[in-house]
Amino acid sequence: MTIPLLGRIDAYPTHKISGFPARHGNPLLPGATFTNGGVNFSVSSENATSISLVLFKRGQREPYAELPLPDTFRTGHIWSITVYDLDNLDDLEYGFRADGPDPNCSPDRILSDPYAKLVSGREVWGQEPDWSDPYQHRSRLMFHDFHWGDDTPPRIPRDQLIIYEAHVRGFTRHPSSGVSAPGTYAGLREKIPYLKSIGVNALELMPIFEFDEFENSRINEETGERLYNFWGYSTVSFYAPKAGYAASGRYGMAGDELKALVRECHANGIEVILDVVFNHTAEGNHEGPTISFKGLDNDVWYMMTPEGYYYNFSGTGNTMNCNHPVVREFVLDCLRYWVVEYHIDGFRFDLAAIMTRDVDGTPLPNPPLLQELAYDPLLRGCILIAEAWDAAGLYEVGSFPNYHRWSEWNGRYRDTVRRFVKGDPGMAGEMATRYVGSPDMYAGRSPAASINFITAHDGFTLHDLVSYNDKHNEANGEANRDGGNDNNSWNCGAEGPTDDPEIDALRRRQMKNLLTLLMTSQGIPMILAGDERARTQWGNNNAYCHDSELSWVDWSEGDLPEEIAGFTSRLTRLRAAHPAVHALEHPTGREVVPGLPEISWHGVAAYSPDWSQESRLLAVMRCAPAADGDVDCVYVASNAHWEAREVELPWLPEGALWRVAADTFAAAPDDVFPIGEEPVLGDQRAIKVNARSTVVLCSRIS
């Protein structure tokens, strides 16, 4: 493909460099950009004393041209050139060669463009690369010609969001998935009807920025299994979608395939959130590879100690210098690009506490990057979610600098609900606080600041949380030393698989208890993909390296997965139907109607909660105005004790009746009733809450 010259003075070359017509480029256009008659290449480097543009034909080991940029093509620290007469741009690969006094800035290396929109070298997942090739991750051009039609972001109100965390490859790679292109964006797109069926409306994708699945890849000597960088938390290129996740990746169409997924999600009322990793890169420490940033400006992009070593607040070897002005601008530009070009609806930031650190690692009270992200006009419609801790011990859950914009993964919610449901003593009061949006942590913010979750990619699955007391990570090849030990799990009486029907029944009930508390809590709930199908990792709580059935969602039909999936589907609809459980304001106790407060706490006796060390009962009634003018009332009683409890029910106005919405002790499908089909409770004064079970009652007051 050749771009014709247009009738503009600045569209004509002024130089001939290595046989190519060229001119001083536009330094305001970072990366590679189609311009009048040519391609504008621009790269920033403070350390470089010279820069060359290196051009390859796709699949060729050696470059076919190298264009040294004249010093006059430098504006400040930005080098830019517009090159004309570049044939077949579809097959063009490019990079930069930098030379300077910093040892990392060596002309022996070819560097990827930090702003590359596509990267080749890992277009087919798991295909062994040519390790002798010195330029492993090659920058490519992207043609922005995708037709979005009338695509409009769903803009789902925060109180109605239900997030579903999924791995693109792991979601459909299993042979049972039934999709035409397993393990790809296209395969995930085919599962959108399933996502709708279980009631989720926000798809949070684990990292899809280009990464190298062969980073730290190795063979498990005991099993012979190839272990990969499966999760992808080690970015190679921040602007490029992972080509190995695309059925069309080898043809340079990863961007279009991802956009088609986003467009289809939006058409079905599902937002798309990206899990982004701006705390470190794939370049590692001084022993790691030089891919891009190190060779351009090592001490700009990374936090360096006074002795010249890499700070390691990420636990991966390096730490991005997020509050350096150059890096701040890069992060902002990157997120704007994904919102504008890919119509992304939000971002979850991995180890986001690092983004609060100054250039020397000191935590800042008002980090400029977070403030700019919060107020940026292009990002104003996006949800911003922080994993508010890092690997060096900085824990900011509840204190993350938020500017009334940021939500947080609420790790305290996760730990509390796990401990309460398994029956730990002294958890009733803490559970009550977490249940209503953690007002002790988010008093000045909406309950939507709390992303409530029980499980995530890192840790046990829901099934394993109730099936294992201890982690079983031997398959990782690290002698079971990796992964967390503070799981707050309980195996219900046997470690791992069992044929005991009582243990099996208890595990099913415990999974339902956890899901019920999650879906009736104030805040934004998040489900881990496959939890609604009782997916197991056989006790592995750190499956970061497994591209196998250990990590894939199993779509096989079966009694257990179908039962939990049906329960989840009905439960999400219960949440959506009752504004009382997802109110966007913290409860104050004000009366909704005379004698009926918006929240009241109870115990075995109505209006007499028991917050003692021995209490294992949480009982609460919440009331809120409904859209039709009625008052919506929901009563939840969760009994984590091993004995049943007879509980007295709170007062309702004359004519109002309690109906049974859910009972985790009941057999499916009567564990959750369809909306509008909830049976009237026989005894309106009291109800039996069975051992280790949860009951949800509802009522409408006209």
If you had to describe this structure to a student in words, what would you say it looks like?
It contains 13 helices and 32 strands. The model is unreliable at about 1-5 (pLDDT under 50). Helices cover about 20% and strands about 20% of the residues. The chain is α+β, with helices and mostly antiparallel strands. Among the domains are: about 10-110, Sandwich (Immunoglobulin-like); about 590-700, Immunoglobulin-like. Strands 12-13-18-19-20-21-22-23 form an 8-stranded parallel beta barrel. The termini are far apart. A hairpin with a 5-residue loop joins strand 27 and strand 28.
What CATH calls the topology of one domain is Immunoglobulin-like
SS strand fraction: 15-25%
Q: Which homologous superfamily in CATH is the superfamily of one domain?
A: Golgi alpha-mannosidase II
Task: Tell me the CATH architecture of one domain.
Answer: Sandwich
Radius of gyration: 27 Å
The helix count comes to: 13
Q: What is the overall pLDDT average? A: 96
Oligomeric description of these chains: single chain
CATH class term of one domain: Mainly Beta
Shape: elongated
Helix/sheet category = alpha+beta
Q: How many strand segments?
A: 32
Low-confidence runs of at least 5 consecutive residues: 1-7
Strand order within the widest beta sheet: 12-13-18-19-20-21-22-23
Percent helix, as a range, is 10-25%
Distance between the termini: 68 Å
Main sheet: strands, sense, barrel: 8 strands, parallel, barrel
What's the structural blueprint in terms of helices and strands?
Blueprint: E1 15-17, E2 20-24, E3 31-35, E4 38-44, E5 50-57, E6 65-68, E7 74-75, E8 78-84, E9 92-99, E10 118-120, E11 138-140, E12 163-166, H1 168-172, H2 185-190, H3 192-197, E13 202-205, E14 209-211, E15 218-219, E16 226-227, E17 235-241, H4 254-267, E18 271-276, H5 293-301, H6 325-342, E19 346-349, H7 368-375, E20 383-386, E21 406-409, H8 411-422, H9 428-435, H10 439-442, E22 450-453, H11 462-465, H12 501-519, E23 524-528, H13 559-577, E24 591-593, E25 596-597, E26 599-602, E27 617-625, E28 631-639, E29 645-648, E30 659-663, E31 686-689, E32 693-701
Parallel strand pairs: 12-13, 12-23, 13-18, 18-19, 19-20, 20-21, 21-22, 22-23
Antiparallel strand pairs: 1-2, 2-8, 3-4, 4-8, 5-6, 5-9, 7-8, 9-11, 10-11, 14-17, 15-16, 24-25, 26-27, 27-28, 28-32, 29-31, 30-32
Helix pairs in contact: 8-9, 8-12, 12-13
